[in-house]
Specification:
The chain is mainly α and 235 residues long. It has 11 helices and no strands. The protein is globular and about 55 Å long.
């Protein structure tokens, strides 16, 4: 049974600090967490849409060996591109990725854009993916809201309603924005925790957003959540 959290207090900084402390010690070692390359992070985020992590890992690793950068993706023949994607489905995703790669080559000299509006303007990149790239690769205070984050925030802040409804959706985005802004300025004793040797995090915003996703994926699950192991159960 899911424990009902009391609505969080107006001061959410202790909650943010708890997540910043918890995540580096409990983060799964995933290949896209071993780099801050925005291209690799982008590839992983697109692959993870509608697809489980365990399925994506071998696809991601094969892709990065074959197409290690934006230029390689932009120039890739369509038959090779579809072969690398074969089995993931939703082929519009990979076609949009190549369109975006070619746009980056043509408009940004092959350099992945760092400004959030420029990332968001790329084909196939929506609000969530742009926020993920900007925060994870560049430590920008951009929120991310996916199914895992929605579940965590709904339980933690007692947010009800249909997440697909505009007003409710904006409540989730607003709350996520507040937390990532706090992560940008949060200071723990000893500073931001050091990541395990294999993993790389760009800073507090990167840690906070990934902590929310990890919490939803591994502890605050849809069924049988492990509330006794929740790092923010007292918040």
């Amino acid at each position: 049974m899911v424990k009902k959290h009391k609505p969080a207090a107006p001061n959410h900084r202790p909650l943010v600090r708890a997540l910043l402390k918890w995540f580096p010690a409990h983060a799964r070692d995933l290949p896209w967490r071993r780099t801050l390359d925005p291209y690799a992070i982008w590839v992983s985020e697109i692959m993870l849409q509608q697809t489980q992590v365990k399925t994506v890992i071998p696809y991601f690793e094969r892709w990065m060996k074959a197409l290690p950068d934006v230029e390689a993706l932009a120039a890739c023949p369509s038959d090779q591109l579809h072969k690398l994607w074969e089995g993931l489905g939703y082929y519009t995703r990979v076609r949009n990725m190549q369109k975006a790669a070619r746009e980056i080559v043509e408009q940004h000299e092959g350099n992945f854009p760092t400004a959030h509006p420029d990332i968001l303007a790329l084909p196939g990149i929506g609000r969530y993916t742009a926020g993920a790239i900007a925060s994870i690769a560049f430590d920008q205070p951009q929120p991310i809201v996916d199914g895992n984050v929605i579940r965590v925030l709904a339980r933690l802040f007692a947010i009800g309603g249909d997440p697909k409804e505009k007003t409710t959706s904006e409540r989730f985005w607003s709350q996520a924005t507040e937390l990532v802004e706090l992560a940008r300025t949060s200071k723990r004793k000893g500073g931001i925790p050091v990541a395990p040797d294999a993993l790389r995090f760009s800073g507090g915003c990167s840690l906070l957003n990934q902590a929310l996703m990890e919490l939803g994926a591994t502890i605050c699950t849809p069924a049988n959540p492990a509330c006794d192991r929740c790092p923010v159960r007292r918040h």
